Amino acid sequence: MSKVTDAAIAAIVAKFENGDVPDGTDFSTLITAVQEAAQDHEHNAGGGSGAGTGDAGQVVYPAGISGLFLDGALSPMILTGGEIQNGTNAGTLKVTALTALLRASTDEDGVLTVVSKAEEDNIAISAAETTYHVVLQYNSGTPLIVLQAGSANGTTEIGIGKAIRNAANFRWHRCSGMRLSNGVAKLHQRAAKLRDIELLGGSAISDEGSLNFEMTAGDAYEGANHYALDAFASLTDKFTLIYYGDTPTAWQLVADQTAIPNDEYNDYGADPGLVDIASNQYTCFWVYQTPCNGNVYVAYGRSSDKLAAAEAIQPPSTLPLFLAEFGMLVGCIIVQEGGSTFATIQMVTDRFFSGTAVADHGELSGLDDDDHSAYVKRVEIGVLPKTADESVTNSVVLQDDNHLFLSVAAYETVYFVIQALFTCITSPPNVGYGFTFPAGGALYRGDTSRTGGAMTVVVSGVQVGALTCTANKVNQWPLRMFYVGGATAGTVQFQWCQYITSANALTLLKGSQIQIWRNV
Questions:
Q1: Which of 198, 214, 201, 99 is nearest to 158 (CA)?
Q2: CA-CA distance, 151 to 59, in Å (whole number)?
Q3: Segments forming the whole domain that contains residue 399
Q4: Antiparallel, parallel or unpaired: β 239-246 and 295-299
Q5: For residue 199, how many other CB atoms are within 10 A of its CB?
Q6: Does the pTM exceed 0.70?
Q7: Which of 193, 228, 262 is the last residue of a domain?
Q8: For residues 431 and 469, is the Cβ–Cβ distance under 8 A?
Q9: Which of 294, 274, 291, 271 is closest to 283 using CA atoms?
């Protein structure tokens, strides 16, 4: 063993004995020394089998090296450099100068070799909208950078990242961080596959008025790799809006935006793709960021809904490939049609947008013994509040209230009271009201005088009657209702309108509510 090799081994052993961890430079020095010792051995071997201590050309490690299990314990890895960047030419990549460990053969414990490569610029990304693995290949000791569809084999080649471009030659990439030993590499791969890119904290979205928004600085991880995210202000940094249209049938990217729209949602796959949000309804805008470059993208919502329904919507299941592969969901901004402020901001760190909890009664275990009646032991009393004022003018057509509705199961019987608080400027218009409910069900309105009497049979979607509204006063009307369900589950929806059309607003006030009694 050469003195250089002895010194390199001694340096590593000393670090282990002191409780320290050797770094890539230590191992690079050691393996270089081993290679030089092997070359000396090759030169001294004298030729064929039996001459010297081994066959000429065969790399044989001294006993001390073998005892450190270098080939088994270490992975092929980047030691220094190897960062992926945008190339100088459009649609290309650059990989900075690097040193790395690669195996000389595809055996999992094959001989590790130190290789070096100068910076390479203008590496072509051949096809648009295609995800490529950026791979460093051993290539008989003359390393190459290649872009390929499949993953690296992990021995004579390692993945150092992934990349994609679109037809306009915008590029996205991420580095894989292969500076890891075997065990840690597997943990990194597991985390990356389970969670992909996720927000650790920060990047909090705030309403800055006029439908502009800001995000604080944040932290994200892709596997074991950390990304530091800068603060963002839509008014100055700008973002790109995304929707899918049918003319043409493609993803549409609208760059340099400063404010969230309040007029349209994405009717996915329809022509032209963007349609008007219904009056007084809401849609979700999904905020994404690509950590590789800090760019922010906002995807249009896919539906027009009441606020409660909008708040329960899950993220879109389809996205442009670059965003699905290289983007990270930050949160959701819910906007009302024509609104000037955000109705709700939901952060991905505060809410699970999808989960594995049982949502369907039929998915539960223990249904075969049909012992449900043993558990009907109490009555649930609940309150569903109206969280914002709602007004109507010049309309005698029943409209769904944005907040006052309740879900009902098949064959369920529910007693509920709507405490309606109205104001009006003139008398009339007064209040017309009604309900919709599932087919096969029956709904009855109790006497409004509290003295008892005949019940009124409600026809779904048909006005029941009128409620008096005294001008410039808060008018309170309790509507006592009985619902008897049929075979269809669904929603009992409160509807209302002006009883006599008027340009003066009729308003159902925040604080109105549904009080519910049902068996559970």
A1: 99
A2: 29
A3: 372-519
A4: parallel
A5: 21
A6: no
A7: 193
A8: yes
A9: 274
